Amino acid sequence: MGYSKPHTQSVDRSRAVRRVLWWVLALNVGVAVAKLGYGLLIDSVSITADGFHSLFDGTSNIIGLIGLGLAARPADKSHPYGHGKYETFASAAIGALLLFAAWRVGSSAIVRIQDPGAGPAVDGVSFVVMLLTLAVNLVVTTAERRAGDRLGSEILRADASHTASDVLVTLGVIGGLVAVRLGYPIADPILALLVAGFIVVTAFRVLGTAGGSLADTARLDPAEVSAVACSLEGVLGCHGVRTRGSESEIYVDMHVQVDPGITVATGHAIAERVEKAVVEGFPAVVDAIAHLEPFDEYQQRKTEEQERSGLL
Predict the structure, then answer these.
(1) Phi and psi (nearest 5°) for 119?
(2) What pLDDT does 11 receive?
(3) What is the CATH number assigned to the segment(s) 222-309?
(4) What is the reported pTM?
């Protein structure tokens, strides 16, 4: 018993996510080259650090593409539930990269605070470069987050958060350049250090989301799943609803109660209708399994106990 969503739908979703990551990768590489090149040219620690951060954005895109390639493979003997968690592993890797980016930005800032030197040679071109790359990052993070929500992709949401942290870095760098122009070169590394803190916060958010999937956090309200099951003819009760997986790939198992007087074949047909209704009723559900039970006094008491406890 059990009903699964056709694998072709997962493949189509994976292709759509990969297309987004490819164009984001191209934009991130262009932004990184611009920042790194100009930062090294004028000796600005904040612009150079921002360039490295953008380079990490591109690295996270590559990790995402690898993770999606692994996650798109169908279930097999060794992985009966499929390979979907590779996408979660990839998003966790992006979170780790964010922490590394924060360390890179923060350590460079501390070195420059200890030995500020003459400061960067800021001119009008500096602001043009940073404002243009800021505009690109804003477009990327907005479009990628929307695509992540539309496709239910952890990897796109994580990568959008990574790019959003790059926006924060760039804003901090622009603020530092203004202060340097006003005669305060120490502002360049100080602002870079503050932005490193924001990157750390973003990293822990990404890691928290990935941890929820790896820890099998419940993904659906059991009462909503039970309501779908109980709306079908022949279903007298539903309890023991459990859900797990990622936000875009949810697995459901439940106990469905039927009239104890019906035949096994009739009960099996009812359970199959329930499984199909749950998969089709919740877009993120890819697999549902219904355990059939007779709706006698004992089973009715079990359902009532779970309703009172909120577990259903």
Answers:
(1) 85, 165
(2) 64
(3) 3.30.70.1350
(4) 0.63
